[in-house]
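call fold(seq) -> tokens
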Amino acid sequence: MDQLLTDVRNGRSRVLVVRGEAGVGKTALLTYAAESATDVSTLRAVGVQSEMELAFAALHQLCAPLLDRLDRIPEPQRRALGTVFGLAPGPAPDRFTVGLAVLSLISDLAGERPVLVVVDDVQWLDTATAQVLGFVARRIGAEAVGLLFGAREIGVELHGLAELQVEGLPADEAHALLGSAVEFLLDEPVRRRLVAETGGNPLALLELPRGLTATQLAAGFGLLGGQELPGRIEQSFLRQADTLPAPTRRLLLVAAAEPIGDPVLVRRAADQLGIEVAFAEIDGLMSLGERVTFRHPLVRSALYGSASETERRAVHLALAGATDSATDPDRRAWHLAAAATGPDEDVALELERSAGRAQARGGFAAAAAFLQRAVALTRDPARRTERALAGAQASLQAGAFGTAWALLATAEAGELDGLGRARIDLLRAEAAYAQQRGGDAPGLLLRAAKTLEPLDVRLARDTYLDAWSAALFAGQLATDASLREVSAAAEAAPRPETPGRSSDVLLDGFALLFAEGRPRAVPLLKQAARAFGDQGASVEEVLRWGWLATAAAATAWDFEACLSTASRQVEVARGAGALAVLAVGVNVLGQVAAMAGDFAEATSLRAEADAVREATGAHILPYGALVLAGLRGLPDEAFPLIDETIESAIAGGQGTAAQYARWARSVVLNGLGRHGEALPWAVAASEDTPELFVSSWALSEQIEAAVRSGRPREAAAALGLLQDKTVDTEERWGRGIEARARGLLDDGPTAEGAYLEAIEHLTGTRLRPDLARAHLLYGEWLRRRTRRGEARAELRAAYDLFASIGMAAFAERTRRELQATGETVRRRTNGPGTTDELTPQELQIALLVRDGLSNPEVGSRLFLSPRTVEWHLRKIFDKLAISSRRQLRDALPDAVSEAAG
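ret:
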């Protein structure tokens, strides 16, 4: 504890989870740290078991002293916290935006003096607070902030953080502590047994002897039973409570059932129960101050757990009556539910309203808990089913899949009409898709869409598009619904009566792609993609299907639409704080940047993708990183990423990720000139399903690898397939790729014409890597025909492009070709002060600051505090040999942001 405080005072951040069984001394250690930190701002919160279902309950405790600082954090974060704390109405905020807001508040306070955050009984935090604090703990960087957590067990929210396991006292110290608690001499065997069986637990050593007679202790009778240690300690507390008068015991029960420790509320409830007891400290079990506090949390659990159902219901009813329905309706509803003896529609309706308020604050886990309790209190079968479905939906949004499945089973057992059955199918499919973006999800979504057709045409079409999305993720690993099957069903489905939305056009284009082929489909795909890239598609459509519109643009060879759709989805997702969408969007935009040869921007987006994935736990594989690694061509970087992706993709049912990885390996190997090794990887990617844009890219690699490996027939067959995918396009991307591939197979003047055609098509586009490769192939062709002067010009153009982009493998291959023409070319190396020295995260920070973003704005983008951004900037300045933000404009590449628009 002392070292942690020293580090925090010296400006270093520290996070520590103090872990151990009940009574072992966690709270004592946390209290020691808090009381020792007199020169530090201390924020405290304690988890309360009965408040676990109230969203952000513990966060209110923690942040109440900071609310006067809300105007000092970025507006989206301020808006999110205002909604969570009921200070202002608004849509449900993303929980990660809430986490970033709390991080910003703590960072702001740390700018004045070091901060210590102490949170005890973490195992009893409400889910929303635990998620926020886990986020903050992982994002604290260069701050004078310490986070101390006390927990019996560590949940997923704090998993992986630094731990201090607190064990029982050594035997000699345990004997000494026991001697201080027992005023007479114990037999040595009894003393040893007590120390051994308590494991040196301090609370057990102090509390277990209480309430036992000297005879019982001396003989060892009545000391230890077969219970676990916490249960034995609770029994000790109960023995002490049993000596009190009945009204006093009942007052203790009221306090145990009241979670916030409000003495006025406890007094009002006691008055309703007719309890006439002096409201003061009660025999060391409970004390009064500004709050009602128990000597130990086990006192509360012992008192509450030992009471009868009748006693507990009476107490909760009194607490509900004492709670203001206007200022605290949710706790009142929870007390009413605990007091209910059977189905009660009035209470169920109150719980339903509480669920709505929880959802509005972003507390989906709390909403699910309210609805789950409402289901148990609902007698009417139809309402019970409706509430179960609503609870399942809230559980899915909270990521509580076990609760969702249970509520779906409850709904399924009730009275269902066709729409109800369809909603169950849809929720099951959405759960499968959320847990694993492939595998079974396409088939489940397809069945749900078919069930919805006669009931809700628009919802059915939306579900078909989700099914198409899931099938695209799954690729060849889809278990029972391929893209072709989804497309056929969508093509046969009813059309909406109202004019089509952009998403309707997108679905029609994809369905026609398999039903009737590219000539009919491509115009619709281009129309949809361009609508998603400008204002034609709604924000809701962009958030839900924006990345799919980029796939449509890529299928149609429309690179400008790829850029606009990917950029708009990222922009909208950032603005909305929709991090689950952003996890996909930055991956897609990273691909676009890499294919434009903007590796600095692609690296920056990769860092952002990693940050979002780390913050949210999203199961999105590194598509953008694969494209970047493939084009960069560094085997030590690319091959481990490719192998890991293939393994994860197969395990997770994401077949398209495996297809990307195989294509990326073929690009690296072609760049290295290892064409024989590249060929099987390119073939695997080109023959993989879905046979869309990635298979087209792979066909180009297959043609080059086959020609260079002396397999012209195989190359010719692949060219035919590539021409089928480009014959209908006027886009320069597709025309250039086809012409370049044709040049590899042609001979004589026709080959030269094809290469010149490819260069003409690709010149002036953003597709610098493809243009460079066209120059390379043409230069190689010229050299083999001993036209060395012309070859040097083409190869020099290729080398300059490859080197400036950072395509190492192709640059080295081109350098060797230039040497073969008689030209001496030195490998380009980057000296001190170049961006190669920056980590991906540092590069992204540098780019964002160069583009004018402030530290708080950069922090919002990367889930860092402003002070951590400033710390990174100092390192960036040192590496780039500059001293100010203004100098970043000259220190960074000129066009690093071009692909992001």
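The first helix runs from residue 2 to 9.
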